[in-house]
Amino acid sequence: MPIFEYSCRKCKNKFEELVRGKEKPACPKCKSKHLEKLLSLPSMKTETTHGLAMKAARRRDRKQGDQNLRNQAEYEASHDEG
């Protein structure tokens, strides 16, 4: 069951819809069935794109971890009993 992208010709809403068999989708915003099916490219995952995504995720996680450590240190410094 493929997911297609559509643009409503009546209200210009763009949306994705899971289409089963011969169903004719309707715009979720205005309920119009006057739709244009959009061209969507398939998503491909290769070793290169997977490696880049993992590298970006590690960088994001490391940055977030560093920020969490700084926040914790600031919190502890401002709540010292001394």
**Elements, N to C (H/E):** EEEH
Number of strands: 3
Radius of gyration: 24 Å
How many DSSP helices? 1
Mean pLDDT: 87
Major pleated sheet:
3 strands, antiparallel
Portion of residues in helices? 25-40%
Q: Assign an overall shape.
A: elongated
Summed up, the domain count is 2
Strands ordered across the widest β-sheet: 2-1-3
In summary, what is this structure?
The protein has one helix and three strands; from the N terminus they run βββα.
Give a structural overview:
With 82 residues, this protein is α+β, with helices and mostly antiparallel strands. It has one helix and three strands, in the order βββα. The protein folds into two domains: 35 residues; 40 residues. It has a three-stranded antiparallel beta sheet, with no helix packed on it. It is elongated, with a radius of gyration of 24 Å. The relative contact order is 0.13.
SSE blueprint and pairings:
Elements: E1 3-8, E2 14-18, E3 35-37, H1 47-78
Antiparallel strand pairs: 1-2, 1-3
List keywords for this structure.
82 residues, alpha+beta
